[in-house]
Amino acid sequence: MKRSLTRGLVALIAAAAPAAAYAHPAIGEAAGLSHGFAHPMTGLDHILAMVMVGVLAFQIGGRATWLLPATFVLVMAVGGALGMAGVNLPFVELGIALSVVVLGSVVALNIKAPVAAAMALVGFFAIFHGHAHGSEMPENAAGLAYALGFMTATAMLHIAGLALGFAIGRGGERSGFLATRVAGGIATIAGVGLLAGLI
Predict the structure, then answer these.
(1) How buried is residue 191: exposed, middle or buried, by Cβ count under 10 Å (0-12/13-18/19+)?
(2) Which residue among 89, 119, 143, 158 has the highest number of C-beta atoms inside a 10 angstrom radius?
(3) pTM (two decimals)
């Protein structure tokens, strides 16, 4: 059981490791697919929120295991389109940081929300993440390829979250529950740090 708990926590740390302190890569650094893929992978805020979506989907189970990630990716694409089109959306960075706090808290508290409510929650936060990706697309990037890149990266982070939930679950009901609370708690604390500008 301790081994499964350790594996789950190591997976969360490994998912967050590439983020370092950068929230977003520099504009013009790359273009198209590769730049779009890199954008979610280089921000601790994006990584934690998307991994938590996967963990939450695992916690709820059933149809939620695919509906929550699918909702996030599809609604994020809408937000990305708004960002690419230059449509202003207020409080984007605040919304992204809050997504880490809220999703981490929901996971830590093991809140068993109805699937529809969970979809609405992740969809709401997906708009902010998508807008950030779209508005920071470099001018020389192909829009469709860029969008495909950040959607693919997001889906992979959701899968990492599902895998983390599965790994934690294999530790047994008691230790798995504790490990999930710890993982959600870590994300929540990191989200508070992002809100306070400490990370």
Answers:
(1) buried
(2) 158
(3) 0.79
